[in-house]
Amino acid sequence: MIHPLRRGLPARLLAFLLVLVGAPSTDAQRSANPHDARVRGFERDALRYGARAAESGRALLPMLEIERLRNDATPGVADAALVRLAASRRLLPHVRAYATMLRGLGELATGDPSVAEATFASLGYVREWMIVGAFDNEGKTGLDEVMPPEAARSATVDRGARYPGREREVGWRAYPAELSPTGYVSFDATLRPWVNVCAFAETFVDLPEAGPHTLWFGAAGAAKVWFNGEEILRDEAYRNHDFERFGVMVPGRRGANRVLVKVCTGEGSWGFSLRMGDRNGAPLPETRVRAQGPTEAAPAPASPAALPDAPVAPLANLEALVEARPEGRNGAAARFDLARFLLWTGAQDEACRRVFELAAAAAELDPSVAHLLFASEIAETRAERMRFVAQAEERSPRDPAVRLARAQLVATGPDPGQALRTLSASALPGRFGLDADWLLATLYERRDLPRVALAIIDRNIARTGGAVSWVRRKGRAIDNQGRRA
Questions:
Q1: Distances (CA, A) of 27 to 22, 32, 94
Q2: Confidence of residue 11 (pLDDT cuts 50, 70, 90)
Q3: Upstream peptide bond of 326 is cis (omega within 30 degrees of 0)
């Protein structure tokens, strides 16, 4: 039997439902997007934390929050905040570089790709490499195995060398730099096979003067990095890629400095990014790179100078804050921060549940609404989600965030109509009202009431100043309506 609503919505029923959900009004059109104020608040937080080395890792969380709000805030608001942060001299150099990277990602997503490429070029990510692979990593044993390219890391370069690979003999070849407008070197776009394998990339970076320099690195997969033959970085975790994940101080030589990278993957993404910085972490965009030029590094100085401590990279800083604050509210806040950073940047090892463990520990040490609801969001089972939401309701039953979380949970249960009735009967304020409308529109669509869903979406397009998320949702809703027809 065909449902009668599939043939068109009766005018009286449509009128009733539009009153129920609220038709667009002049006041709604004039109201400010509540996410814009959040962006401004996160910008202030980034400036506060990013000026202090002791808590500089915490500055990245509000920056990432701004990035996450790009499609929800009024168009241009989040991008403008990242532009200001990228230019702010109040931030430490490596924190400012991260803001610039996020600005570039925004330009790549919403603007001219050539503008984004120029932004990433200003950070000095190394794009010229010779690569070789794939080598075997069955059982994730490849990172510890000394493979031919790393055994020869201090010998004269032989680009004609051939090695036994995972499936065939392999040799060095130039990496196509045009594949890396952001500086991310994608092994899985250039090498085969790409499951349970390792690969190497090598280049020479010319420095005008000898002395301490910083090297900034992030990888998708487990990784090692050598600088002039010396291992300077090792990360055994199989993570997703994030820029600037690790920072290391290196003894730069005047002239050619040899950099070798090894990345191993299981079944995930496979690649890396790397840039050189000055001793404070500021980018060196004019540094010359010669992937196919020299055959060996510049000679080491007779008496190398002692290296100062490197600026603490964000992940290491947040890990240190957790270690320094084991209990109480400060310990909970540190775990909450680290859990979100691991989740949002893909830094959790694919073999563990550390994000949830940190979130659950934060909720136990300080059962605030924010901690409990975050733990609920990332819980793997419905029972865990229900437990954390119930705790939040006991603590603050009228909190709009808690009410929304309960509605979202009910909407995935046996009676999703209960969530629809609850949200329709009592509107939530501010940004929670926007999220509630997302859910309402979805529930109406599922009930073959696309025109009601579109009315909600149109109202919020006006309310948010044309936020991209609502415009995209309208496109999907119209497409779904057309398919039904």
A1: 12, 10, 43
A2: very low
A3: no
Dihedral of the alpha carbons of 289, 293, 296, 299, in degrees to the nearest 10? -60
CA 64, 68, 69: angle at the middle one, nearest 5?
120
DSSP E strand stretches across 39-184: 130-136, 162-164, 169-171, 173-174
Q: What is the pLDDT of residue 25?
A: 39
Which candidate, 381, 384, 359, 354, places its Cα nearest to that of 371? Answer: 359
Helix (H, G, I), strand (E, B) or coil at 54: helix
Give CA–CA dist 248/235, Å, rounded: 13
Q: In which element (H, E) is residue 149 found?
A: helix 148-151
Nearest residue to 318 via CA among 64, 93, 54: 54
Residues 264 and 142: beta-carbon distance below 8 Å: yes
Residue from 211, 204, 198 nearest 266 by CA: 198
What pLDDT score was predicted for residue 477? 82
Q: Among candidates 103, 133, 355, which has minimal Cα distance to 243?
A: 103
Answer for the pair 33, 74: CB distance below 8 angstroms, yes or no: yes
CA 469 to chain centre: 18
Q: Provide the 3-class DSSP secondary structure of residue 275.
A: strand
User: Rounded to an integer, what distance in angstroms lies between the CA atom of residue 144 and that of residue 224?
Assistant: 10
- Compute how many other C-beta atoms are within 10 angstroms of the C-beta atom of residue 436: 24
Q: Which amino acid is at 53?
A: A
Place of tokens 């730069």: 252
Q: Which of 59-91 are b and which e, b meaning 16 or more Cβ less than 10 Å from the residue's Cβ? A: bbbbbbbbbebbbbbbbebbbbbbbebbebeeb
Instruction: For 332-347, give one letter per residue: b (16+ CB within 10 A) or e.
Output: bbbbbbbbbbbbbbbb
Structure confidence by residue, pLDDT tens digits, 406-461: 999 999 999 999 999 999 888 999 999 999 999 999 999 999 898 999 999 999 99
What span, in angstroms and rounded, lies between the C-alpha atoms of 429 and 247?
Answer: 42
pTM of the predicted model, to two decimals? 0.91
Q: What is the pLDDT of residue 482?
A: 63
The reported pLDDT for the residue numbered 110 is 82
Hey, how many other C-beta atoms are within 10 angstroms of the C-beta on 287?
18
Nearest 10 degrees: CA dihedral of 118, 123, 128, 132?
-120
* Closest by CA position to 341, among listed 321, 326, 367, 368: 321
